[in-house]
From TrEMBL:
<dbReference type="GO" id="GO:0032259">
    <property type="term" value="P:methylation"/>
</dbReference>
<dbReference type="InterPro" id="IPR025714">
    <property type="entry name" value="Methyltranfer_dom"/>
</dbReference>
<dbReference type="GO" id="GO:0008168">
    <property type="term" value="F:methyltransferase activity"/>
</dbReference>
<protein>
    <submittedName>
        <fullName>SAM-dependent methyltransferase</fullName>
    </submittedName>
</protein>
<dbReference type="GO" id="GO:0005737">
    <property type="term" value="C:cytoplasm"/>
</dbReference>
<dbReference type="InterPro" id="IPR029063">
    <property type="entry name" value="SAM-dependent_MTases_sf"/>
</dbReference>
<keyword id="KW-0489">Methyltransferase</keyword>
<keyword id="KW-0808">Transferase</keyword>
<feature type="domain" description="Methyltransferase">
    <location>
        <begin position="34"/>
        <end position="175"/>
    </location>
</feature>
<dbReference type="Pfam" id="PF13679">
    <property type="entry name" value="Methyltransf_32"/>
</dbReference>
Amino acid sequence: MSNTHEIRPGQSVELLKELHILTRDGKMNQDSRRKLKQVYHLFQFIEPLLQEVKTENGRLTLVDHGAGKSYLGFILYDLFFKALADDSHIFGIETREELVKTSRALADRLGFTGMSFLNLSVADSITSPALPETVDVVTALHACNTATDDAIRFALAKQARHIVLVPCCQAEVAAVLRKNKGQQLGSNPLTEIWRHPLHTREFGSQVTNVLRCLQLEAHGYQVSVTELVGWEHSMKNELIIAQYKNLPRRRPAQRLESVLASLGLEAMRERFFTAPAETNADA
Ligand SMILES: C[S@@+](CC[C@H](N)C(=O)[O-])C[C@H]1O[C@@H](n2cnc3c(N)ncnc32)[C@H](O)[C@@H]1O
């Protein structure tokens, strides 16, 4: 793909240079192309969601968890938020202070006034007064380990309309599968699926995402799971998009309970059951 295809009309060349996507002489930095490709691809999924909220609410708030260098936040701001003449806002949540400082400085330099970066863990951001009571869109791109789970909790607590997740590896579920493997082996032939250590890890990772989807469905969300980019770009390319539709919750909640019980994962119940914010949990 040529440079002209990857830089879009109206896009800040200064931003791309600052994110080291363009070299100082305006050429594509090959190492960063992969990241940009992922983020653009993700933008195609996120843009219609932003448009929908904007049309209905007139403004929007997006929180990006485990923001890192905030590639996603900056590209979303540059391609969508920058043109909005309202108080729409992007918050980036990140535990590494130096990345938060760098992102703040870059937003200042570029005049991206509708962006804030908070040096908080995802878990702490749920109750932080620095964030609004409700948010429209929550994103988490490769947020490490259980940070994706905390991002789901955040989204549920803030009654997010849209949740966009590209999970990283999560080790917790695999650890419980591993611990209980001996007990399970005799009782269930399907345990063969995770008997070998490598399979325990891979199956644990897949089950984690299955449980996340059921958790979201149990809160009335419609969930779609797709691929972010081809395998050659990233090993972690599962894209989970959840849209709040107030759907019936009882069946996914029962399924979640059954899956945990069938796999000997009862110890993970706390992780995937979150008290609903609304009242019609029995629907
Ligand atoms: C793999 S990087 C991804 C960064 C960015 N989202 C991207 O895709 O380029 C994960 C980031 O999440 C941050 N992180 C990990 N656990 C976190 C937590 N519990 N709360 C907030 N940030 C976290 C890390 O410091 C790191 O910058």
